[in-house]
Specification:
- The chain is α+β, with helices and mostly antiparallel strands.
- It folds into two domains: 99 residues, Beta-grasp domain (Ubiquitin-like (UB roll)); 135 residues, Alpha-helical ferredoxin (Fumarate Reductase Iron-sulfur Protein, Chain B, domain 2, Orthogonal Bundle), CATH 1.10.1060.
- Helix content is 35%, strand content 14%.
- The chain contains ten helices and seven strands.
- The strands form two sheets. The chain has a five-stranded mixed β-sheet.
- A hairpin with a 5-residue loop joins strand 1 and strand 2.
- Helix 3 runs parallel beside helix 7 and helix 7 packs across helix 10.
- The longest helix has 17 residues.
- It binds iron/sulfur cluster (2 copies) and FE2/S2 (inorganic) cluster.
- The site of one iron/sulfur cluster (SF4) has 14 residues, from helix 9 and helix 10.
């Protein structure tokens, strides 16, 4: 099928009560969705607000809703997502307040990392003191492998924007915050295991996950927050059964 010479791009403009605005953008070989947005901002409408930094899939700042699905835009080639008639629809990430145009406000997303106790608390150095020595963690240990599986999160919020439970319950911690909590629960150097499990055990925590796996299917880093949440549920179950809580 011949590729269209130009793309018909609909872009969300304004805040929550904004509307789609239409642009025509030249189609190029190996063009990414972020290239399209950048073209609009540089050549057609300098007032367009959007966010990016690294352009290589490391910073997590460029995520948007592309033809109805949350994606990182710097690593999404147009040809993978464009409609047959060259149509692209770009909106800010779902489940988050809109600042303006394609820029969503990630404050609630990162607030939930804090609520899920997503900060490493050294076991042997409470109150922010420097640990006496580096802990030795065997790379092949089960806990280390569990932590490794989720540690490459770039905080892009694609999973959060894809989660139905977040859409229904704005209080729900969401997949990324609990994925982070799971890496720390498995970090033998961490000293806040109990508080962290308490933080994810409430109504807005892991037991509210419906295991639909949208987070896992859409994570651009191929992480598996759904399994991490299942791990939290399992740990809470056994800790309760064995009287450790
Ligand atoms: S598996 Fe759980 S956290 Fe992931 S998208 Fe589904 S409900 Fe949300
Ligand atoms: S878990 Fe994946 S989708 Fe969610 S914030 Fe981290 S990298 Fe992004
Ligand atoms: S711009 Fe950094 S991940 Fe896309």
């Amino acid at each position: 099928m011949a590729e269209p010479a130009s793309l018909k791009v609909s872009v969300w403009r304004g805040g929550a009560d904004g509307a789609l605005q239409h642009y025509e953008v030249p189609a190029r070989t190996n063009q990414t969705v972020l290239d399209v947005v950048t073209h609009i901002q540089r050549e057609l409408d300098p007032s367009l607000a959007y966010r990016f930094a690294c352009r290589v899939g490391m910073c997590g700042s460029c995520a948007m809703t592309v033809n109805g699905r949350a994606r990182w835009t710097c690593r999404t080639h147009v040809k993978r997502v464009v409609g047959a008639d060259g149509e692209l629809e770009l909106r800010p990430l779902a489940n988050l307040p809109v600042i303006r145009d394609l820029a969503a406000d990630l404050t609630p997303f990162f607030d939930k990392w804090q609520r899920a106790r997503g900060t490493f608390q050294p076991k042997d150095a409470p109150d922010g003191a420097v640990p006496a020595d580096f802990a030795v963690v065997p790379p092949a240990s089960k806990a280390r492998r569990e932590a490794d599986a989720g540690i490459e999160c770039i905080g892009c919020a694609v999973c959060y924007a894809s989660c139905d439970v977040v859409a229904w319950n704005a209080d729900y911690l969401g997949p990324a915050a609990m994925n982070r909590a799971w890496t720390l629960v498995n970090d033998v150097r961490d000293g806040a295991r109990g508080e962290r499990l308490d933080a994810v055990a409430g109504d807005a925590g892991c037991h509210s996950c419906h295991s639909t796996q949208s987070c896992t299917e859409r994570c651009p880093k191929n992480l598996d927050p759904s399994s991490a949440i299942a791990g939290l549920k399992r740990t809470l179950f056994w800790d309760t059964l064995l009287g450790r809580r």
